[in-house]
Amino acid sequence: MIHLVMKLNALLFLLAGVLSPAAVKAQLKIGFYNKTCPTAEQIVQQTVAAAFRNNSQVAPGLIRMSFHDCFVRGCDGSVLIDSTSNNTAEKDAPPNNPSLHGFEVIDAAKAAVEAKCPNIVSCADIIAFAARDSINLSGNFSYNVPAGRRDGRISTAAEANANLPSPLSNATKLINAFAAKNLTADDMVTLSGAHTIGVSHCSSFTNRLYNFSSTSQTDPTLSLAYARLLQSVCPANSSASANTTVFMDLITPTKLDNAYYVGLQLSLGLFTSDQALLTQANLSAAVKENARDPGGWENRFKTAMVKMGSIQVLTGTQGEIRKNCRVINSGSLESPLEVFDNVHGEEFLREEIELDNQINSRANEKLASHFCAHHIYIKLCRQLALISELKCILPEPFP
Ligand code: HEM
Ligand SMILES: *[C@@H]1O[C@H](CO)[C@@H](O)[C@H](O)[C@H]1NC(C)=O
Ligand SMILES: *[C@@H]1O[C@H](CO)[C@@H](O)[C@H](O)[C@H]1NC(C)=O
Ligand SMILES: *[C@@H]1O[C@H](CO)[C@@H](O)[C@H](O)[C@H]1NC(C)=O
Ligand SMILES: *[C@@H]1O[C@H](CO)[C@@H](O)[C@H](O)[C@H]1NC(C)=O
Ligand SMILES: *[C@@H]1O[C@H](CO)[C@@H](O)[C@H](O)[C@H]1NC(C)=O
Ligand SMILES: *[C@@H]1O[C@H](CO)[C@@H](O)[C@H](O)[C@H]1NC(C)=O
Ligand SMILES: *[C@@H]1O[C@H](CO)[C@@H](O)[C@H](O)[C@H]1NC(C)=O
Ligand SMILES: *[C@@H]1O[C@H](CO)[C@@H](O)[C@H](O)[C@H]1NC(C)=O
Ligand SMILES: *[C@@H]1O[C@H](CO)[C@@H](O)[C@H](O)[C@H]1NC(C)=O
Ligand SMILES: *[C@@H]1O[C@H](CO)[C@@H](O)[C@H](O)[C@H]1NC(C)=O
Ligand SMILES: *[C@@H]1O[C@H](CO)[C@@H](O)[C@H](O)[C@H]1NC(C)=O
């Protein structure tokens, strides 16, 4: 046995000598934790599913988190790192704070995974698994996630500001932002379909509602009925609506499907950057095709998520396996955090079982808290019925 290992080592040494460093660089692999932590993906899936049962909005939060992790320093979990006294981290840059959410779900998944196999599974991989699981839960389709990412040790707000595209972007800026990550214009249109679920704060689209141009108060490429309703939900100059959010896909707000593209063609795209997908013939052809063929979009979306998930990844011995996803490792191998994580992990699994038992009583609470959003939604549907043949579907069971 020892002999065989020595032979293997010698062989690897020889190979390393022959091949260039780039060629030996480890690749992401499906089933990367098969041997070292066989239940890792299952534990993440169970954690995300439990969080989703409590609050289905965690799904869009985690899908967006994967995008924001990968576009800043690659998919290295840097979006999870907390700011410190001498560093403002990515998560506190305006494109992330206060809108990016779901960090507690990643913490819970990490704690549960650490309880089973300490120091093995990276935070970067947990984000990629959690995004896949969120897609499965909200869209009922799934894909294999190549893994083996390592965690980065750097996270700055300045890099988040520089790399994350703004909702005010035109098509040229969007294409360039994706090209900077080796993603094509087609990938950009395909991935924008993620705006089929989730919500946005008023500040991301009020540019289209007030004082738009010298000739028009509202953006003329936005449905006027929709603009009026958005104005009623997001008043001008109002700090009171700082925390107000609206659904981004009016047709099926909580289902991950191709309705985003259908809405775009009905002037229901929410951001300037959504509308921008109709401003170049090449892009709008892709929008039309995605609206026409849901299965085709699903397949392209899965492929594009894997592609996005491989941007500038750290592998092999690069980076580290962070113990606490919010804090870079201190350098010492024996960290007191390990003990904390194990306790925390078991605690979470207990809570998960309790959550199952409580689900019926929680369902009522959830309906009550969502009543307001549904009320606005129904109003919006009535208004939209004036301008289109859209059949409005209620996002969740409604009394
Ligand atoms: C094409 C360039 C993109 C721009 C300019 C953009 C911009 C935005 C903005 C401004 C929001 C709303 C934030 C808020 O105000 O609360 C948002 C939400 C969201 N974005 Fe994007 N995005 C882009 C691409 C993507 C991609 C590639 C994905 C994932 C594959 C994605 C997934 C999401 C999701 C799921 C939400 C909803 C988040 C939630 O409900 O919390 N976006 N996006
Ligand atoms: C892990 O197991 C799956 C299923 O048996 C297999 O498809 C995959 O290639 C394996 N991955 C690795 C890295 O061993
Ligand atoms: C359930 O969701 C609510 C928000 O809707 C959140 O405040 C709470 O912490 C969540 N509970 C669990 C156990 O995840
Ligand atoms: C920031 O402070 C931490 C200790 O809190 C230190 O380890 C780190 O080197 C400092 N970073 C910089 C860039 O000064
Ligand atoms: C997708 O979700 C279904 C349940 O909705 C589950 O049975 C299946 O294992 C999930 N697939 C993956 C890859 O997690
Ligand atoms: C989810 O997709 C599977 C096929 O992949 C299908 O059999 C099942 O009925 C779907 N579930 C829902 C709730 O649509
Ligand atoms: C797109 O936006 C950039 C920067 O905001 C601007 O320089 C450029 O002229 C715009 N392109 C078009 C076609 O409007
Ligand atoms: C894009 O591809 C080029 C050529 O392979 C490579 O040098 C560069 O690092 C890649 N950029 C990113 C962000 O992956
Ligand atoms: C645009 O055109 C190029 C070739 O001219 C093509 O490769 C690409 O798929 C088209 N679609 C998009 C969305 O860029
Ligand atoms: C509206 O926009 C014009 C320029 O287009 C600007 O001069 C004016 O101050 C703006 N008014 C308000 C109320 O923001
Ligand atoms: C918003 O504030 C500007 C001045 O800051 C004012 O001119 C404008 O009328 C206000 N708009 C509304 C709708 O109150
Ligand atoms: C928005 O939320 C923050 C954080 O929860 C809170 O401090 C602030 O008062 C809220 N603002 C409004 C206008 O509700």
UniProtKB/TrEMBL annotation:
Kindly list the places in or outside the cell where this protein is found, as annotated in its UniProt entry: Secreted
| Native organism | Apostasia shenzhenica
Q: Which family, according to the similarity comment?
A: Belongs to the peroxidase family. Classical plant (class III) peroxidase subfamily. Belongs to the peroxidase family. Ascorbate peroxidase subfamily.
- Which cysteine pairs are joined by S-S bonds? C37-C117, C70-C75, C123-C325, C202-C234
Query: What is the recorded function of this protein according to its Swiss-Prot or TrEMBL entry?
Result: Removal of H(2)O(2), oxidation of toxic reductants, biosynthesis and degradation of lignin, suberization, auxin catabolism, response to environmental stresses such as wounding, pathogen attack and oxidative stress.
**What are the record keywords, sorted?**
Calcium, Disulfide bond, Glycoprotein, Heme, Hydrogen peroxide, Iron, Metal-binding, Oxidoreductase, Peroxidase, Pyrrolidone carboxylic acid, Secreted, Signal
**Transition state stabilizer (site feature) positions:** R64
Listed under GO cellular component are: extracellular region
- Catalyzed chemical reaction(s): 2 a phenolic donor + H2O2 = 2 a phenolic radical donor + 2 H2O
**Positions of the Plant heme peroxidase family profile domain:** 27-329
Record: residues binding Ca(2+) 2: T196, D249, T252, D257
Which residues of this UniProt protein bind substrate?
Answer: P165
Among the GO molecular function terms of this UniProt record, one is:
lactoperoxidase activity
GO annotation terms (biological process): hydrogen peroxide catabolic process; response to oxidative stress
What are its E.C. numbers?
A: 1.11.1.7
Signal sequence extent:
1-26
List the PANTHER family hit by this protein, alphabetically.
PEROXIDASE, PTHR31517
Task: Please tell me where Ca(2+) 1 binds in this chain.
Answer: D69, V72, G74, D76, S78, E90
Q: What does the record give as cofactor?
A: heme b; Ca(2+)
EC class of the enzyme, as a word: oxidoreductase
| UniProt-recorded name of the protein | Peroxidase
Q: Which residues bind heme b?
A: H195
The positions flagged as active site in the entry are H68
- Return the InterPro entries for the record: Haem_peroxidase, Haem_peroxidase_sf, Peroxidase_pln, Peroxidases_AS, Peroxidases_heam-ligand_BS, Secretory_peroxidase
Textual note on the cofactor: Binds 1 heme b (iron(II)-protoporphyrin IX) group per subunit.
